[in-house]
Amino acid sequence: MIGKAVNKARHKFRLRTTLVVPFVLQIVTAVGLIGYLSLRNGQRTVNDLVSQLQHEISSRVNERVQLYLETPHLVNQINEDAARLGVLNFNDLEGARSYLWKQVLRFQSIGHIGLANEKGQYLRVGWVNRSVGSEQPQLAQQLKPGTGDLIYYKLDKNGNPIAIARKTPNYDVRQRPLYKAALKHNRAAWSDVYINFGCGSLQINASSPYYDSRGNLLGVLTCQMGLDQIRGFLQTLQVGQSGQVFLIEPSGELIATSLTNQPLTTGTGKEQKRLNAQESSNPIMHQSMAYLNAHHPGLHNLQKATQMDFRLDSQRYFLEVSPLRDDYGLNWLTVVVVPEADFMAQIKASTRNTVLLSLGALGVAIAIGILTARWITHPILRVSQASDQLAQGNLNQQVEPSTITEIDTLANSFNGMTRQLKDSFNALRQSEATNRALIDAMPDLLLRVNRQGKYLGDAVGANRLKLFSGGTSSIANSTVQDSLPAAQAQQRMAAIAQALDTGKLQIYKQQLVINGQVIDEEVRVVVTGEDEVLIIVRDISDRKRAEEALRIAEGNYRSIFENALEGIVQSSPEGQFISVNPAMAKIYGYDCPQEMLHTITDIKTQIYVDPADQLEFQRQLDEHAQTKGLEYRVYQRDGNIIWIQEDTRAVRDNTGHLLYYEGIVQDITDRKRREDELRRQLEELKIEIDQKKREKEVAMLTESTYFQEVQQELAEVNLDEFWS
Fold it and tell me: What is the pTM of this model?
């Protein structure tokens, strides 16, 4: 059959065509792939370049803006230190005017510096919008406690007031955002970005509360900064040819932008309000913000720089948004947008030249391929003819050597393959015989079955099959339903379907009654082909009987454990109970073992009355690996003290590693009480015996002759004469 297929293919295609066409296809594919990879590499290079450019610009912007924003809080910190040293006095704001004037001249990036106290008094010195060259510095002060007029003074070159410029009536600094921001956060903080309606620019205040040594609030230090200088810095940046960078708040409101003609507010006068970037007339900024809102709604919680891209008017734009935060509550976002077209023009021209050169090389390669194919056709045809004979089963094939080195190597390889093929066929026959012997020696029953339950061929394990089929060893063309009872057949069909549907091994157990004997079996169903499984049946009756015997033994042990009159305990080397029986729990005054296990977490400190008893217990275990009749006092649940006697041994594994302790505990409190009572009675008996003994000795002494004679002599003595 294989030989016919080869002959048919040879008559249908010429060898030269077969060699040339794939060669040409490979070259065409290579040229196309080179062009495609050239374009892709160019795009990848652009992506990497833009990513680096965006990251560099974002980092540069963030660093410069952070540098601008450090100054106001630095000024407040300097003034706080000055207040601590007594240079500034919150009860004498007028005295701080000269100091603040010199300070505002020193720091060029800030607008004005001020102090406010809890009485409502307020003083500031500087500019409202310092970036406007025509604006003159002013002194604004309200020194009346409570609410009063905020008076603006014109200043001379030394910072001294020379004339009143205007007044703001009913001014209470304590109700202003600059004051409330510090109290709200109870630390140095930024106010919200706001519009200065007088000049139409955006500004921000840095405020810091000031407390005395007792923690009493004395006032607030404030420093205002205009954001025009940040915008001026952004407009100095070159972002590609037509890219842009802008700062926004997470809500989308603009703070600064690199576009010179992009307003930051809308409306005029008191009707002015901040402009949202998505409402910008600039299409790139508008689409960038729309894309951010659509794909990253949680801009308030942005933690790191994120790069993405979007399309506008069929052009691709690269976008990077990065958080800009500080320790004072600032939460801004830096957005850098770069069009792909700024970088791709030169790369596309380079790709076009590469494709043209590749097409020229393609034509030359095709011509060379055709000539080469003609040269190697004849030797390859000889190899083809020999392969045809080999496919037909004639293994005695030899190919003559060729003058072409590669064809000669092919001929030698073919001849070696023919020899190896002969050896392989012989080895295959031997392996098949060996595998058949191994399968026949297996104790299991092997069955091939299709999805419909039909057995495919005979089974392996003829002796066991005869036992089930009543003496026949052939099940060919029979079904599962024919060979098993209905319930077992249904279970097997379900396992077959589950294995074929999931492709996973299925294992279940079944029980059969054969010749009056119950047989337990384990059945494994494994997929071996499309709609075909191999069923492996193993007799597990002996294992089942062993498991049942083990279950009975465990039940007996559990019964002894639960019903024993003595306490039985297992504990860890660390001093926790592992298990206790009901008798053990009862001895210690607990209602159940679970309560005792939950309550006692450290045996050393919760059980022993005398710590020396625990040390003795541990010493005996360490030296003898057991204790015998050890008696000591313990605490019960309610705090009562009882006596117990414990016999314990250490349980170790095969390597000698200590696993746990197990022992038997008896309550010997009654015995100890009887022993104490007996001891007391013996002491009392001893005292009584000693008393009677002394009385007897006195009686013997008084009844002696000597004593009677002495007593008689004493009675005859005249005491008056004796003393005279």
Answer: 0.48
